[in-house]
Design goal:
Elements: H1 2-15, H2 23-40, E1 47-48, H3 51-70, H4 79-99, E2 108-109, H5 124-138, H6 143-167, H7 171-179
Helix pairs in contact: 1-2, 2-4, 3-5, 3-6, 4-5, 5-6
Length: about 190
């Protein structure tokens, strides 16, 4: 049912939105469709994250939603910010498609993926998400937007570390983490 809702959001984003077709509008539809596809074909959960792990993931999710809410109308975004959003969305969509049946919104153990962008960093979807947040918040700069961005980074870090505790319970992930040392930014962290 959730997958169908996401497909409808993608379609309604085109049908119910007036104004020019922008790169972010295309990207948001692609995000909705890729998440719908991933949810529709998810593998069974091997282990659900603890309530504490679920709570650790929520602030990053909420801040991402707030970043979209604080953004200027898409038609007002400069092309450079649109491109930044599109690049972040492409990274996220590619990551979701690579995850395939292992996709999860909240911490859960389904399996380990090492293909696609996961061959270069362990959490590329979050890298894409942060790029999209940066674009949204840069589209309408304000002290609140800056505070949201500066707050989001440590919460995304917390989400990653919490997820890795769960994933680290399986040897496959521990081996993968040794082969792909960077979590979010290749060459840095």
């Amino acid at each position: 049912m959730l997958a169908l809702s996401l497909v409808s959001w993608a379609v309604l984003g085109w049908a119910a939105t007036e104004g020019p077709v922008t790169l972010p509008r295309i990207a948001v539809s692609a995000l909705h469709l890729s998440v719908a596809l991933a949810i529709a074909r998810r593998a069974p959960v091997l282990r659900v994250g603890s309530p504490r792990a679920l709570m650790a993931a929520l602030p990053a999710l909420l801040l991402a939603g707030l970043a979209f809410r604080l953004a200027a109308p898409l038609a007002e975004w400069p092309i450079l910010i649109q491109v930044l959003f599109l690049v972040g969305a492409c990274i996220a969509v590619t990551s979701f498609l690579a995850l395939g049946e292992n996709f999860a919104v909240l911490p859960a153990l389904r399996g380990v993926v090492s293909r696609g962008p996961y061959a270069y960093m362990r959490h590329p979807a979050y890298a894409g998400e942060l790029m999209m947040m940066l674009a949204c918040l840069s589209s309408k700069p304000s002290p609140v937007a800056l505070a949201v961005l500066l707050t989001a980074v440590p919460f995304v870090r917390l989400r990653i570390i919490t997820e890795e505790r769960l994933l680290g319970e399986v040897e496959t992930y521990r081996n993968y983490a040794q082969q792909v040392p960077y979590r979010l930014v290749p060459g840095m962290w």
